[in-house]
Amino acid sequence: MIKVIIERNIAVGMEDTYRDAIRETLKTVIEAPGYMSSESLIDLKKTKHKIIITNWTSIQAWDQWHASPERREVTSKIAAILEEVEKITVTEPN
Predict the structure, then answer these.
(1) Which of 19, 65, 83, 89 could form a disulfide with 5 if both were Cys (CB 3.0 to 4.6 A apart)?
(2) Is the pTM for the entire model greater than 0.85?
């Protein structure tokens, strides 16, 4: 199993738009082969900083999802409201 940590900084005033887009993304990722679960967090000191932790069966499953047209489509709405490019960190238990 791997964990993928995605960090995003949302533009001011775009929280509702982000919430809608993340719901749509969740509906799509649930169908992705190898997807196990996810958690969405908000930085309490910087509320526009969002952190998503997803669990995947393998790096290959994540890579397939990351490169998929489905992901590009749903995350394009998120990318449009970010202050900077999202940061992705792929991890595994040590």
Answers:
(1) 89
(2) yes
Phi, psi of 26 (to 5 degrees): -60, -40
Give the span between the Cα atoms of 60 and 68, in whole angstroms: 12
| Pick from 90, 91, 82, 74: nearest CA to 8 | 82
